[in-house]
Amino acid sequence: MTLTIVGWATSTQGKPLSLRLTRQEPPAVVPVREWRGEVLPNGPPPRPQSSLPAPGTNELVVTVAEQLGSGRCGSVFAVDTLRLTDPNNPKIRLLYPQPPHLPELVIKVADAEHEESLKHEAAIYNEMEPLQGVSIPRAYGFFTADLDADTVVPSLSSDVATPRRLSIVVLERLGEMLPLGQKLPEEGDLWDVFRDLARLGIEQTDIRYSNILEAPASGYGLPGQVCPFHGCVHSYRIIDFDSARKTDLTLKRHYYNTLGYLGPILESMKNNIVLEPWDIKGSTGMRPSAL
């Protein structure tokens, strides 16, 4: 599968270029074992068997819209989908604006310096395949391209000599950030979303306000899937897993590690305050604890 981005990059002379990126399979996540404290006797939970078909030869063509955010390892942009086609299968041909429509998408973009972090995030999404569209966004692949010296990618670097390699994860576009100045509707549902991650052994080591979003609300989004653990459709999604890890911690320990950060964040939200992790009393830099 390939991803083509039209008119976003330019040459050093300002001529619009198309970027063509190839889908790559990130390596499997290597679990972390604590070996002491509140840990599972048989180690981290096994990775659920994938139910997805093998990647095809589709080409997804998009244009980049507005920037939605940025973080340690990359920037997130909304994209407009122009078409999805398969040169080997003429039946696969979705053209905008003709129905059926593809869901709204975003891309998370990293330069060469942060490729390994974004690759790890893509691997974590693969590890949590049963939770895609449930507790986390649907993920549609990790793509890379080596850039010519004449290629300039906006917002990544002002130096035309870098980055020479571009990495992208394609994700489902989610809803808005959580509301401020009030008690979070269905707060218990958000705790259940974090419990979903814990059941697969995933420790979100970067719990913060900006990494929790509402489920997709757009009419062009795919409906949420029923949670395999709670039997409902969750209202919230967790994002940004470039520093997440898979562990052998018990569900109880996962809960208390989450409580130390999510609890203060939710309380501050009621007072219209966004509390960052480093401002939380007793913060240990989001290093999970086994004890």
3D structure, described in words:
This protein is an alpha+beta fold and 291 residues long. The protein is built from three helices and 13 strands, in the order E-E-E-E-E-E-H-E-E-E-H-E-E-E-E-H. A hairpin with a 4-residue loop joins strand 3 and strand 4.
List the helices and strands and how they pair.
Elements: E1 2-11, E2 16-24, E3 59-70, E4 75-85, E5 93-95, E6 105-110, H1 115-127, E7 139-146, E8 151-152, E9 165-172, H2 187-199, E10 202-203, E11 212-214, E12 236-238, E13 245-246, H3 251-270
Parallel strand pairs: 1-3
Antiparallel strand pairs: 1-2, 1-8, 2-7, 3-4, 4-5, 4-6, 6-9, 7-9, 10-13, 11-12
Features:
alpha+beta; about 290 residues; 7-stranded mixed beta barrel; 3 helices; single chain; two-stranded antiparallel ribbon; about 25% strand
The DSSP helix count reads 3
Termini separation comes to 44 Å
| Radius of gyration based on Cα positions | 20 Å
Major pleated sheet: 7 strands, mixed, barrel
Overall number of strands? 13
Roughly what is the average pLDDT, rounded to an integer? 89
Low-confidence stretches: none
Tell me the series of helices and strands, N- to C-terminal: EEEEEEHEEEHEEEEH
Q: Roughly what fraction of the amino acids lie in strands? A: 25-35%
